[in-house]
Amino acid sequence: MPHATASWLIDNTALGFTQIADFCGLHILEVQAMADDLAGSKYTGRDPVHSGELTHAEIEKGEKDPEYALVMQRAPVDVSRTKGPRYTPVSKRQDKPDGIAWLLRNHPEISDAQVGKLIGTTRNTINAIRERTHWNIQNIQPKDPVTLGLCSQRELDAAVAKAAKKAAANAPEPVEGEEVVEEAPVQPRDDKAALIEELKAEREEAAKAAAQAAQEAEAEAWLTAKRAAEDGETNEG
To answer: Assign residue 84 a region: left if phi > 0, alpha if psi is -120 to 50, beta otherwise?
Structure first.
């Protein structure tokens, strides 16, 4: 919780912004914004002395020497989840249906059990959203559960990878002796070349039609002249 720790150090020590930023792994501008109350009000201060990460003596060294880099006494303890349903803050519980809808739309390969574990919800709620029978279905908008803060990106990636691995394991194997036909890769169509060929064919077809029409017209004219000549000879006789 680097921001919460930085907030406490700003309020309770005379350390410099650079020292606090380096210790908490933040950008100095973030620390400055917290000191100016632009962001600090979003975080509840966390005492690093109480957690054993710093000592009062270490803080005093830093206050006396602005160039001194604080040394962490003990790494922060990771908070691991216990078995049971995921706890979701009250402020985020209304976002659960949006997160479920996003998972159903973008990752249908994830099982209902996995969705329930990621979001902290029940199968009944998942089915209601899938079948659009949820009481608030008209107001549900699919949103990334990671962005909503309902789960971490690591947890989502792990669920997707697990679902993909399971799908690959359940894929039917080819029957022995059965020929596996590989589809030839579709070659990208060159629209420009195809258009040129089409226009060329049309011109050739038009030229052939014109030549045939000219021949027919010439034959018709010859036939007309011949008939006229024959009629003239008959009249003279």
So the answer is: left
Residues 6 or more apart whose CB falls under 8 angstroms from that of 133 comprise none
Q: Judge whether 152 and 117 are in contact, CB under 8 Å.
A: no
Q: Other CB atoms closer than 10 Å to residue 77's CB: what's the count?
A: 9
Range 16-34 burial, b when 16+ CB lie within 10 A, else e: bbebbbebbebeeebbeeb
Residue 229 Cα distances to 219, 221, 225, angstroms: 15, 12, 6
CA atoms within 13 A on the CB side of 51: 17
Q: Return d(Cα 207, Cα 212) in angstroms, integer.
A: 9
**Residues 86, 117 contacting (CB under 8 angstroms):** yes
Q: Which two tokens mark 137?
A: 């279905």
* Structure tokens given for 78: 């990771």
Report CA 231 to chain centroid distance, whole Å.
Answer: 87
Which residue reads 């604080």 in tokens?
Answer: 70
Dist CA 71 CA 76 (whole Å):
13
Residues recorded for the chain: 237
Mean pLDDT of each 10-residue bin along the chain, 237 residues long: 83 89 86 71 75 88 90 61 50 79 92 89 90 90 85 86 83 59 50 63 73 75 77 65
pTM exceeding 0.70: no
Taking CA atoms, 137 is separated from 83, 132, 150, 181, 191, in Å, by: 30, 6, 19, 44, 45
